[in-house]
Amino acid sequence: MKQVHLHIIDDLASNGRRSARIELPTGETQALFFEHDEGALSTANGANPFLLAFFLRLMEVGAPVKIHGAVSERLLTNLEELQGAWNKWLPSRYHRFDVEVDGFVAPGMPSNGPKSAMTAFSGGVDAGFCVYQHKYGDLVWGKTDLQAALLVHGFDVPLDQPDTFQSTRSRAAAMLNGTGLEFKTVRTDFKQLKQHWEHAFGLAIASCLSLFEGTYAVGIVGSSSDYASLALPSGSNAVTDHLFSTGDLEIRHEGAGFTRTEKVGEILKHPPFIEHVRVCWAGEQMDRNCGHCEKCVRTLLNFAVFGVEQPACFSNGLSKELIRSIQLKTPQQRNHLVTILQEAEQRQVDEWWTRELKRRLSFMQNSRDAVKAAPHRVKAHAKWRLKKAIGRA
Ligand SMILES: [Zn+2]
Prior knowledge:
Layout: E1 4-8, H1 12-15, E2 18-23, E3 29-36, H2 48-61, E4 65-71, H3 73-89, E5 99-104, E6 116-120, H4 125-135, E7 145-153, H5 162-175, E8 182-188, H6 197-209, E9 218-222, E10 250-254, H7 260-267, H8 271-276, H9 294-304, H10 320-324, H11 331-346, H12 352-373, H13 376-389
Parallel strand pairs: 1-4, 4-5, 6-7, 6-9, 7-8, 9-10
Antiparallel strand pairs: 1-2, 2-3, 3-8
The structure holds zinc ion.
Residues 280, 282-283, 289-290, 293, 295-296 line the site of zinc ion.
């Protein structure tokens, strides 16, 4: 079988940019770059960031890979295991491949110290919770010397929207006011590789964190699901994220021991987080919360458990109309709402919104049960009516 070649084509002299290209057996090539605002990126991590970034594309191809550069032995070991995970999750899409390398990145001591850490930081609840835990929280043995937060331009905000990114950056930086963290940004055209984003986003984040291997000892990724509601496969999860670790950079997936409501409860103790936290990617303005999408309403409900019905990061508060407008696309979204109700009950919260949410959940459940129980001909018509009623027809 023909090989895939991965070549490093850094252009550090002219623009401080790190970049690489893969050549597929079909002759097709794909290139990728990383750059940041503070001069040239270090090349000490060899091909590690690129192997992470191209990893799922290489699994889609499934041919042996020749890397014309050095890679950490620890990363090679980890990615062999990660191949097993993706191959078991989606065997028809992701195939195992062999890797040949020019040499190894030698392990060393991170220049900022053995406990130094950088966290991926999008400005949301999960990232805010990680910062809170390391700066002000109850972590004991797991506490790092958290020194920096990393926001990536090219993931949620497209590269051709620099103004939106600037305002997203200002909001995220304001959230970190007083924490003493250094705020860093990286730009990358990762998204033009057109990998399945829900599968690849964890690797994308890890590839950006690994650009700072040699400076920090730990790279932190905030969890989006707690251990009781893991849904696999997922591009970032508590089971496989540690396999993104390279020779000198340990990737830690943190926060899965807490529900989203519990995280909100913690960050409520630090008002600057509440003022600037941004959870929404559905609105027209990507630098703020729309206040109406599923994630915004769910976050408003998380806050409501603590009696906060209009947190400062939203321009609207929780309302009956918002709860009645909830539409569920996945079983996971229903589970989130059921968990919020359970958490409210545990805290003996019995408010207008808990009653309204119960009504909404039971209405949606009854509508679905009615469709399931109906004879086939009626079922098709009922399904159409249900779709129409919830606005998806
Ligand atoms: Zn929203």
